[in-house]
Amino acid sequence: MSYPRLSLYIDGEFIHGGGRLEQDILNPATHEVIGKLPHATREDLDQALAAAARAFESWRKSSPIERSNVLRKVGELARARAQDIGRGITMDQGKPLAESVGEVMFCAEHAEWHAEECRRIYGRVIPARHPAVRQTVLREPVGVVAAFSPWNFPFNQAIRKVSAAVGAGCSVILKGPEDTPSAVLAIAQLFHDAGLPKGVLNIVWGVPSEVSNHLIESPVVRKITFTGSTAVGKMLAAKASSLMKRSTMELGGHAPVIVCDDADVDAAIALLVPYKFRNAGQVCISPTRFYVQQGVYDRFVAGFVEKTSALKVGDGLVEGTQMGPLAQQRRVGAVEGFIDDARERGASVLVGGAPLPGVGNYFAPTVVADLPDNARLLNEEPFGPVAGMIRFKTVEEALQRANGLPYGLASYVFTRSNHNAHLLSTGLAAGMVSVNHIGLALAETPFGGINDSGMGSEGGLETFDGYLNTKFITQMN
Length: 477
Description:
The protein is of the alpha/beta class. It has helices at about 40-60, 65-80, 80-95, 95-115, 155-170, 180-195, 210-215, 230-240, 265-275, 295-310, 330-345, 395-400, 420-425, and strands at about 10, 15, 20-25, 35-40, 125, 135-140, 145-150, 170-175, 200-205, 220-225, 245-250, 255-260, 285-295, 350, 365-370, 385-390, 410-415, 430-435, 455, 470-475. Strand 17 (about 410-415), helix 13 (about 420-425) and strand 18 form a beta-alpha-beta unit.
């Protein structure tokens, strides 16, 4: 299979050519140019806005059954096309093919979950104080949504937003990641083939700041949803709030792991090593700060290093690859900067710690120990294949240190003690806590953070909250 042809998707049409500026798409494993991505002109953006506004007027009145049928068909088609879509993801994003295909298969559930839940967007009747009065509450779609999705999970993050918006009765303009666009175009094709009316979903590309400003400032758009860095999210949230537009922000994380003396150390290592280096650590919920109690610290670190050393790094299309390249060349230098800073502050690099030789954006899976509290690795999200090990004495100390940053997305706890599990799960300042297993990001569970990690949730019963207005109606007969 060759890399797919890239295009815009506006008002039910796939658009390319026409003299538009085109961006080279690179394979991060080989630096080969594999595709050309057309950037939207201002006229294209205005056409997308007009199409979304027009489509909303009819889609908002559509039956929940119709929306459900479209989403269910998307899930069915995603499963059938997972191999081809996954190959495109590996070619432009770099993760191993098994991870890419797994991302598509896993996210078919998101379409199916929203297909079920959109049939259950209920209002309610409030008992009135007068027998002639009837009081009702309705949930109505908020309007046209401007969605911005990231490059690290290009299928996952985009389909969550589109499924929620479409299921709620909204129309969407999605600006996907320019570096890894194939999965987002695949989503457009899935919805197109599933029978979604034209204009309900539109896909545009371009210079991120220019596209986001144009869309957010348009009076057509009533809701913003963004997944990405905290810095960019704060800027977009500020702009949206200044225009009184609702926003959902899923932002950066710096997830702590707390491993207590009474934990099943071998089980924790077996879970955490592949999870840490999944997608080369380019995961907002990736465990990054490993707080390990002193009684099991040496054993845990030794076992973690042993398994990390055995990981096979290479081209994601090569069978047996366990970790692929970083998605962009700039990420190699960024990750290296964290390691250089740690060394300068006296930390020990136990394995890895440098880019790998040859062509491609490869960085060795890395474990760093003896980190001082002022190391960048303990204060800034590394977004790469780096794990920092920190020894602690008491559970209360670990909790205080884990909560020492403004991030609050995901966190992980390993302990056999119900006391410790309760203390840590209720005490951690995070939107999600996983105890003794990895149980986050399922379609039926809420996904989101607090503090600098964002606001609002995707998935679970909360999935439509950001896409619906609440209307109260009181009527006297």
